[in-house]
From TrEMBL:
Belongs to the AB hydrolase superfamily. This is Sigma-B regulation protein RsbQ. It comes from Labrys monachus. The lineage of its organism: Bacteria, Pseudomonadati, Pseudomonadota, Alphaproteobacteria, Hyphomicrobiales. Residues 20-255 form the AB hydrolase-1 domain. It comes from the Bacteria.
Length: 268
């Protein structure tokens, strides 16, 4: 029987002395990494896959009991690492993919040499002096819009998240978002926006590099600062880019950071 890697459209490419595993964000799939994939392939082995509910036929791999929790997706990631017998890897996550990687590393730290978080947030709701960027009525309105008319909601959501007038990125994000079945997209959005992964982040012992776009409607810079302050030994880079998808809209801004944080691993 096919394992989790095959079921989630796993792809293994590239060459090098170390392995990078890519975890995409909400509304995208593994193709979101296309702008940086060639560079990664030239320097390391690269593993990518589609989280359950995303990508072609994503609903076939979605279990409403397992995948309404970030930890269920983290179990998928750990299953894949076990199947591929990679040993230690470097994990690069985007958006919710960051917290899926954090949950996996919290449980099996030895599998991860280091973590790179692009636009990650442990909590989207404001909470006292923690500024996540959203109040509950904001999120309730988002869920209501998704439930009432998914296509109309997406037409407004996509350009806001892309954040720049990049026609190709808007088209690609729309394509992958519409691959998601609307009820699964809604359940996934609730899972993400109602989550609170701060206790998990506080317990991380892996080296972490936090990368954040200068202006991002989904993740305020204060969130990146919180991550940096609560992960011992972490680094923080604010990229001169706008929008929540800098790996799609400004890959040239990320590749120098990948080179800085990945290449010492390959050399050493």
């Amino acid at each position: 029987m096919p394992g989790r890697f095959d079921k989630l459209h796993g792809r293994l490419t590239g060459r090098g002395s170390f392995t990078v595993v890519l975890g995409h964000g909400f509304g995208t799939d593994q193709t979101a990494w296309s702008g940086v994939r060639d560079w990664l392939d030239d320097h390391c082995r690269v593993v990518s896959f589609d989280f359950a509910g995303a990508g072609p036929d994503g609903e076939a791999n979605y279990d409403p009991r397992r995948h309404t929790s970030i930890f269920g997706h983290a179990d998928d990631l750990l299953d894949i690492l076990g199947e591929l017998k990679l040993g230690t890897c470097i994990y690069i996550g985007h958006s919710v993919g960051c917290m899926i990687g954090a949950a996996a590393a919290a449980g099996r730290a030895a599998l991860f040499e280091r973590l790179l978080f692009v636009g990650g947030s442990p909590r989207y709701l404001n909470d006292g002096d923690y500024h996540g960027g959203f109040e509950q009525p904001d999120l309730d309105g988002l869920y209501d819009g998704m439930a009432a008319n998914f296509q109309a909601w997406a037409a407004g959501f996509v350009p806001l998240v892309v954040g720049v007038p990049d026609r190709a990125a808007i088209s690609e994000f729309s394509r992958t978002l519409f691959l998601m079945r609307p009820d699964i997209a809604l359940a996934t959005a609730r899972m993400i926006f109602q989550s609170d992964m701060r206790s998990v982040v506080r317990g991380l012992r892996n080296r972490a590099h936090i990368i954040q776009a200068r202006r991002d409607i989904a993740v305020p810079p204060a969130v990146a600062g919180w991550l940096h302050a609560h992960i011992d030994g972490s680094t923080l880079d604010i990229v001169d880019a706008e929008g929540h998808l800098p790996h799609m809209t400004a890959p040239d801004r990320l590749i120098p950071l990948f080179e800085r944080y990945l290449m010492p691993v390959g050399v050493g």
